[in-house]
Design a protein that fits this description.
about 425 residues, alpha+beta, Cytochrome p450, five-stranded mixed beta sheet, three-stranded antiparallel beta sheet, 14 strands, globular
Amino acid sequence: MNTSVVDGAAKVLTDPTAYADDDRLHAALRHLRERNPVAWVNHPPYRPFWAITKHADIVAIERDNDLFISAPRPVLTPSGPEDLMKAAQDAGTGMRTLVQMDGAHHRKMRAIGADWFRPAAMRDLTAQVNQLARRFVDKMRDIGPECDFVTDIAVGFPLYVILSLLGLPESDFPLMHELTQEMFGRDDTGHQRGHGAADTLEVMEDFLNYFATLTASRREKPTGDIASAIANGRIDGEPLSDMDTASYYVLVAAAGHDTTKDAISGGLRALIENPSELQRLTQNLTLMPTAVEEMIRWSTPVKEFMRTATADTVVRGVDINEGDAVYLAYVSGNRDEEVFDRPFRFDVGRNPNRHLSFGQGVHFCLGAALARMEISSLYRELLPRLVSIELAGKPELAATTFVGGLKHLPIRYSLV
């Protein structure tokens, strides 16, 4: 293997607590971009990988989906849970979502749900999403003058949208939220079910068992929702396996609301901490499209994905061998000084904004249009009704190495 200076700054990428400390995280990532943009990281319990921190390199790797594939290591996971999940997949009992697939199979699986997230479908959903936005802003008004914006508002709104799309009963929404927190929050003491690999697998099994029941129901009696489309989806004329069906549900239900929650809450924090930008947006709602993209860039809910090289190659002068894993540091790419003017300034009018938060290439986020619409809808409802707003305590970020954002955002406000 080509030698590269082992940079201590790169170890923050394997430390979940670093993502709960913006100053520490961004200082390390800035150092890597400047001094060691392709850094070798060997920090157990994670298997070694190359940390890719420059925007251009991340884009190039994601777009070359033959040279760099998702399997067998799509996200950073400690070696113990990684081995258990791989063994379960090999036995046909483990979850395998779109983010773990490549090639023709990925394209065919993605197509099953794609129509539900196209712009035309989003237009049909606008009235329903706007109604839910009013419902949650009304709730915010009613529970004021203080609330925890994350737990009281930002969690519930996208959760209701995506689970309504799936056709799940409202009585099951709390369970879906709890399982999602446990799945994405395995590194955070406030969210994790337990500390061992077996606990992680148990969460997956609970998800899969719930959706196995849903699959059987929708196959027996389709109801015209996205759950029915997934349950009755076919590839090359054959129905999806029960495992692939359940895995599809998990991706839509969990990723479809948790990442949007992070962007919504991270966006509000940025507006509060940048009152001139809050005023600018409130006075000119035509800036909402660029403001939404800036909230997504600023919060970067998905911190990373990983790829594996299928052949020897070179990235920024560094030899990458066949079988090596590369870590795509979206948080770093979204603050790359070569791409973004004053990247540490929150700018609701930023244009262009080539952020990486939805990924690139064939794995571009399936639900990007829905997430944009949800964020826009909530803030179009909230800002004209907002009289005043300020922090009522210290914001708290979740510890993570994959998906995450604010756990708590205490605010004091007045709404009409």
